[in-house]
Amino acid sequence: MVVGIPVTPQSDAPSASTSAPTNLPPYSTRRDTALKDGIRDRLPSEITPQVQDIAGVPVDIGQIKAGFDALFDTLHDLHGVTKTPTVESDLVVQLSEQTFAKHFAVQQELDAALNTVDRSDFDITPQQLARHGIDNPQAILDEILSPDFLHGLAEHDADPNADPTVTERLDAILEQVVTAKVDPKPNAVPARIAAMVDTQRAEVIENTRANPARAINGHVLLNTGHLDGMAVDPARKGDAIRHLLTHEFMHVNSVGSEQTFAHRAGQGGVFSEDINPDEAMTELLAREITDVLAERGDQDVQYIQYPNGTNRYQGNVDGLNNALDQPRAQGEVSAQGTFKAMLDDYFGVDERGGTSGTRPAPSTADAPATVDTTPPPVRDKDVIADESWRHDTASTADWFAPQNPQPSALWDSVRDKAPVRTVDTEVADVQRSSTSNNVDSLTGIIRHDVRRMEVAPGSWVKEYTLKVHLKADGDLPPPGLDGVRQKTVEGVDRLLNQGYRLPSGDQFHARVEFVTDPAQAHTTVDVSTAATADQLNWGTNTSSNVLAHEVAHYFGLPDEYKDAAGPDARIFNSDGKPLPEGHTQSNLVVNDNGLMGAGVHTDPSIKPRHLWLIERTTNSQVMVPDADHATLHNPDSPPQTPPPRPPEFGTQPDPDTRPDTQPDPRPNTRPVDTPPPPPPPP
């Protein structure tokens, strides 16, 4: 069966029969005018000063704070942004060049060890760190990013007679890290080891020495040794530092990363790979504040400059504005809608009692922004019981966003000490061809193991394991199976294992284990050379996105795309209408790049609703005992196995004597195919 795709998003671009006004300035100009007008109107006539000496010049943090308050009130009124900004002088941490570089170097190496995606051959590993005294890199990272640690470094830099404990601790951690990067053999010559460690230490410090600032863990860290030269005119050093702080505090108040804006064509996103969307949005908004403050002080604007006089991030800002100012064809989301979507992703957090995901009402042209009066949904404090999450299209949520994610390397060697429970059930997707005497359906298989483990003190992970037996179809050579295994693991890690959290607060982790004995598998999958797939049939040409989609079915997720019209269409995937408020039995979610919809063929992502449903399914089927950190690391803890399975559990081995001409006795399962183009508008 060929599946459909969500209907084309409604556009606020001009229709074919309506031409947009030609005398309007570009969207970016109108946006900047509206934002600056809003800041001017909201900026108090008298700003309470909070002057701080930074690298020998006075900088008024009070002006930055007032500018943020005025900007965010404006963003709230014009674009529905609900974030409440935080700008405080005690969040500014001044470090010497050497301390800044050492701290940055240690953080980067620990981040590399904890990262499980897109690793390079040069990245340090948790195993290397463990061999040199760092058994829990996440705990060390938390330690060095804590406010007490950061301020302890700053105090010792400012006064060499102050308590040196924190500085000495940083030096000791750095020594462990660089020794781990060298990772000398036990019989290596000590003098040779020392030389290699010295070289490695100098290299990691030098790589981070020239950064003027960074935002981390709610603080702005300044490299006081590199704050000169940000203004061509040395007399404007204080103004350049003020803009630098404005830029970094914008980072502090965002959830930005290069993945935040995934260049989403279907949502009117910015597509150029040359644009760093996080830095573009950060600098664009920071300049709105700096421009108005300079105007208030009757000064020329001072951004952060390179020695040749060009402004840092200018290319990012220009690239974003140029993309937003491009003409929009019928069916495309407007520049206003795109900018609103980017703001929602950039700030993400709801702090004023509403959601930030509401889109502006459609119009025939890019008119000035107006306030969206659509009331936000009322959220139940008990997330797992809140049915409004079932079809929510939010890309993130406060309970869902990663929070100190832990790498699977921490529990790979001890998972067998955790109690395990098996979920084994099925759902039927009833088709329109059904009659009162005969029900036609596609079967959704939900089958996997679940463990709950305290992988580090206070850090809990719920791991979902799918055991798969791959059966080659016909004369498929063994390398074909290897490729399917690799693509499956890659897709699952990239799309599912990014540290997202379940409603319970546990980190979600998906694991696919390929087994040779079909009797030990949750499922047997036939592998051919096809590109299409369903739960029981994969192909060597099936994409890693689709393979991750199929794995997610086994964890309880249904398809979310609209089926093509006809008798084979599934009743709950064929209405194509907007979903009503609250609970509905339909699986359908439209206008979304979710992994379980048509977006699987482009740039999909897992959403809060997906992990909400996975944990709901788990809770309805099994009770999963806990394995605390002490149990996992107790050498006397016995290995755990799932409770006995019923005889009919799982996929049994196919008898060798079954002729190929016999029909496959397994149920007809949900397919995934290349979606056809959307139907023409009515």
What's the SSE blueprint?
Elements: H1 27-42, E1 51-54, E2 57-60, H2 61-79, E3 92-95, H3 97-114, H4 126-131, H5 137-145, H6 147-158, H7 165-182, H8 190-208, E4 213-216, E5 219-223, H9 237-252, H10 277-296, H11 314-324, H12 335-347, E6 421-430, E7 441-456, E8 459-472, H13 478-495, E9 507-514, E10 523-528, E11 533-534, E12 537-539, H14 544-554, H15 608-621, E13 626-627, H16 629-632, E14 671-672
Parallel strand pairs: 3-5, 7-13, 8-9, 8-10, 10-12
Antiparallel strand pairs: 1-2, 4-5, 6-7, 7-8, 11-14
Order of helices and strands: HEEHEHHHHHHEEHHHHEEEHEEEEHHEHE
- Segments where pLDDT lies below 50 for 5+ residues? 1-21, 257-273, 349-376, 576-580, 646-666, 673-682
Count the strands?
A: 14
Main beta-sheet strand count, sense and barrel state: 7 strands, mixed
The helix/strand class is: alpha/beta
The gross shape turns out to be globular
How much helicity do the residues have? 25-40%
Beta-strand residue fraction:
5-15%
Helical run tally: 16
Average pLDDT across residues?
81
From the N-terminal CA to the C-terminal CA, the straight-line distance is 24 Å
Question: What's the Cα radius of gyration?
Answer: 28 Å
Describe this structure in words.
This protein is of the alpha/beta class and 682 residues long. Helix content is 33%, strand content 12%. It has 16 helices and 14 strands. Strands 6, 7, 8, 9, 10, 12 and 13 form a 7-stranded mixed β-sheet that branches. It has a 3-stranded mixed β-sheet with strand order 3-5-4. Helix 10 crosses helix 11 and helix 13 crosses helix 14.
